[in-house]
Amino acid sequence: MTATAPPPAEPDPVTSHPDGRVELPPGVTLDDNRFSNEDLRPVPVAERRWTTYNFTALWVGMAHNIPSWTLASGLVALGMDWKQAVFTIAVANVVVLLPMLLTGHAGPKYGIPFPVLARASFGLRGANLPALIRAAVACAWFGIQTWIGGQGIYVLLGKVVGGGWERAGEIAGYPWTLWLCFLVFWVLELAIIYRGMETLRRFENWAAPFVLVGAVVLLVWIADKAGGFGSLLDQPSRLGWGSDFWPVFFPALMGMIGFWSTLSLNIPDFTRFGAGQRAQVWGQTLGLPTTMTAFALLSVFVTSGSEAVYGEPIWDPVALAGKADNVFGLLFALVTVLIATVSVNIAANVVSPAYDLANLAPKFITFRTGALITGIVGVLIFPWKLTSTPELYIFTWLGVVGGLLGTVAGVLIADYWIIRRTVLDLADLYRPKGRYWYASGWNWRAVVAFVVGGVLAVGGSASQPGKGPFPKEGLIPFLRPLADYGWAVGLGASLVLYTALMLPVGARRTKGTPAP
Q1: Residues 6+ apart with CB under 8 A from 425
Q2: Distance between CA atoms of residues 214 and 220, nearest Å
Q3: Which tens digit of pLDDT belongs to each residue from 440-478?
Q4: 515 φ, ψ (degrees, to nearest 5)
Q5: Which helix H or strand E contains 174, and what residues bound it?
Q6: Has keyword RNA-binding (predicted)?
Q7: pTM
Q8: Which of 84, 145, 31 is nearest to 300 (CA)?
Q9: What is the DSSP string of 125-138?
């Protein structure tokens, strides 16, 4: 059942392979540079080579980073014990895996990136709305991650170099040596992504096991110094498992889902290179929930050991590694932090906006140009200021971002799985006046579903005085109870509303009436 405006009599022919993958046959051209360039066009089947290992390695590389290491600490600070914290993170990643697999399906089947998939529901021009929202979030995260990575390099190099490294002259309130680390790290990231997705695949292949080994080495080191683990594992929950736990659990669950809700949208940017559905399904299933849960458990054990050794829990892995008492240990920690942060930041926060910005103006912006713009915007948002207020950018940030992106995911899933039953006209995704043109390139139904779902998801956002940008009673007070479930509310509301708005359009088309 397909909604169109008005469609060509017959779709362009495609080449279908036995495994379900589809590509355009020779001779079909996509030459309208307003909607197509080399980076946005479908990946030929012969070039879809990513295997289960590649997708698993991608997730291992992305999950092993400083912010995900400290996720458990935030939950423990809210009153959970370590078992509750790990449980919450595990459930969140199982939940977010489902939309990840659903949106990822179009990648290996059609070889298209996220902004092109969004054209089926939002229209050829309307797809820029969700694409630019996703790009803005990614640019902000890129800047934050780059600043955190630069800080890690600065701290560890300070331990190696010594002397006046940390007492260097200040620029804008920070030592110039810290700015140097930030700049070098920024350049390194862009240099890797500038070489393209194949370079990223190779980088993730060896970065993933290296970072995993680094985390295990940190565990062995602290366990050796502690002679066992500290009292953190014995600390009871301040919330219990009763009425005090669940009001904290659900907002925390939405925040943990929000951590990877970005990738649940743009995962087709990666799966479009998949050798088949099995590769992306098994790769993501083996890579995401297992890795995030194991990493949370590892962080809890290491932090517990640090409490036994130093008398207080040290949740920051950089600060803990900085306590190594030999140069080799510090250098190994430095390289591990460097690779871990580069791995997640390039994959999670550069690939998506590079495609999203290319979708905005394919004639002028290529994947590489989009990556460069992302890097520049990531600096211009002043990430050193963003990370100075952890309450805002750990809880409020993740909650609001998760709610909005969940709303977009609801529209995409409804359109691809319910309305179209995974059947797309590949050529028309790149052509004006075709079945995805709607009204001047916009599908107002998708926009309405996004706006309504977004208001329901984040309209009740609230902050404690001095802890965030929202009023205590919520932006829209009567929606305050929904804010704790923002991602689920946004996804569910937009999915139901979009389906309800589109089904009559499909019914009219089956009767031969053109759809607006």
Answers
A1: 7, 11, 12, 434, 435, 436
A2: 10
A3: 999 999 999 999 999 998 888 777 776 667 777 878 888
A4: -95, 135
A5: strand 174-175
A6: no
A7: 0.84
A8: 84
A9: TTTHHHHHHHHHHH
Quote the tokens at residue 397. Answer: 């940030």
pLDDT > 70: percent of the chain? 89
* Virtual torsion, Cα 288, 293, 298, 303, nearest 10 deg: 120
Instruction: Please give the structure tokens belonging to residue 388.
Output: 């100075």
Using CA atoms, how far residue 515 sits from 3, 139, 507, in Å, is 7, 37, 9
Q: CB under 8 Å to 207, separation ≥6 — which residues? A: 57, 61, 339, 340, 342, 343
Q: Assess whether pLDDT exceeds 90 at residue 121.
A: yes
Q: What is the mean pLDDT of the chain?
A: 82
165 is written with which tokens? 């490294």
In this structure, CATH architecture of domain 31-388: Orthogonal Bundle (1.10)
Rg (CA), the chain: 23
- The rounded distance, in Å, linking the Cα atoms of 167 and 147 is 19
The Cα 119–Cα 111 span in angstroms is 14
Token pair belonging to 60: 């291992």
Q: Which residues of 248-280 are buried (b: 16+ CB within 10 A; e: fewer)?
A: bbebbbbbbbbbbbbbbbbbbbbbbbbbbbebb
Instruction: Report the C-alpha gap between 484 and 256 in whole angstroms.
Output: 12
Alpha-carbon span 429 to 110, nearest angstrom = 11
Q: Is the pLDDT of residue 325 over 50?
A: yes
d(CA 152, CA 147): 9
Q: How confident is the model at residue 386 (pLDDT cuts 50, 70, 90)?
A: low
Q: How far apart are CA 108 and CA 320, in angstroms?
A: 41
**What CA–CA distance (Å, rounded) separates 146 from 181?**
10
